Amino acid sequence: MAGRTQVYIDLVVLLRTDTATLNRIGEGVIMADGEEAEPRNEAVPHPRVESPGRTTTHLVSPAEPVPRMTRLPESRTIEIVVPVRPGDRDRFPVTVDPSRIRTRVLECTDGNLSRLYRDAYLDSRADLVLFKHDDFCFRHWESFEAQAWDLLPRYPILGVAGTRAFSPLRLPWWQQTSQPILMDGLNRGMVSHPLPAGPDTLETEKCYQQTLFGPPGPVAVLDGLLLGVLRRWEGEPLLFGRFTKDDLAGWWDDAFGRHFYDMAFTFNASRSFQDAGLGAACYALVAYVSHESSGTPDRAWQEAATRFMSRYGSAKPIRV
Predict the structure, then answer these.
(1) pLDDT in single tens digits along all 320 residues of the chain
(2) Pairing mode, strands 128-132 and 226-230
(3) Which structural domain, as residue segments, surrounds residue 180?
(4) CATH of the domain at 97
(5) How would you write the chain as a 3-class SS string?
(6) 111, 148, 260, 274: which is deepest, by most CB within 10 A?
(7) Would the pTM count as exceeding 0.85?
(8) Total domains in the fold of the chain
């Protein structure tokens, strides 16, 4: 394990200084293990990292035509599920290829995302179901999708932020060490958050702080701002030769509504995969995405944390 941690740290050092490599990973040109992706056409202009830790960009207009990448599968379908409070909407909808990519905006009236996600997953007929927050934005959809189809044959659950090691007694996922830093050898993924308005914020663009949690790779749990869950693959009756869609749906825990639903779901998935000898169930990739809110642990969060400890505190920690 020490050797694997050193490889991780070496890659973090590289990504923090080599913005060209970071951009190539984010664009889907190379994968986490350094392998070249299949040839494809270049897609729409997208944000690039000018310097580690910060990038300035703006949202692409939905009306802007989006060229297709040749490596994206024509026949595979995606359903994007966006939970909203009554009266709200998806602030950053995905508008490409409506013939195979559908979006469902669902009002979450009781606040139970676990139940809403499970029911939506079972109702879906798509190959891949993506659950995203209404303030989450894909800034370069084609590169995300290209990476997703490459990864799904090995990992049924994808996200953009998570940790390689998770102990239920040490919450939350991004604080699995006493002094969490980028070099702790655990966290993975990348997300941008808006900076407060200031002199360098122009009327036509927003400034974002890009947080590199760590290089892409397998994780034990994922953050719920985005969860991609495989529903079917190439007509096979069982996923990975073992799991039905009902098995995957059973990983959601109704005890968790707006908080810890993500950690419960992905932790249960990781435990099931390890029990089956299948390795890691989840993967955190590096893509160009942004989240308009960073979240704050309020009273409801603290109550959910206590409930999570009660339900999963005795479970064996997982490291991948």
Answers:
(1) 444 545 555 565 566 566 666 666 655 444 444 444 443 333 333 344 444 343 333 333 333 333 333 456 678 999 999 999 999 999 999 988 889 999 999 999 998 999 999 999 999 999 999 999 999 999 989 889 999 999 999 999 999 999 998 888 776 666 656 555 555 678 899 899 888 765 554 444 568 888 888 889 999 999 999 999 999 887 788 899 899 999 999 999 999 998 999 999 999 999 999 999 999 999 999 888 999 987 667 788 888 888 998 999 899 999 99
(2) antiparallel
(3) 2-319
(4) 3.90.550.10
(5) CHHHHHHHHHHHHHHHHCHHHHHHHHCCCECCCCCECCCCCCCCCCCCCCECCEEEECCCCCCCCCCCCCCCCCCCCEEEEEEECCCCCCCCCCCCCCCCEEEEEEECCCCCHHHHHHHHHHHCCCCEEEEECCCEEECCHHHHHHHHHHHCCCCCEEECEEECEECCCCCCHHHCCCCCCHHHCCEEEEEEEECCCCCCCCCCCEEEEEEEEECCEEECEECCCEEEEECCCCCCCCECCCECHHHHHCCCCCCCCCCCHHHHHHHHHHHHHHHCCCCCCEEECCCCEEECCCCCCCHHHHHHHHHHHHHHCCCCCEEC
(6) 260
(7) no
(8) 1
Q: Identity (one letter) of the amino acid at 271?
A: R
Number of residues that this document lists for the chain: 320
Tokens matching residue 178: 């006493």
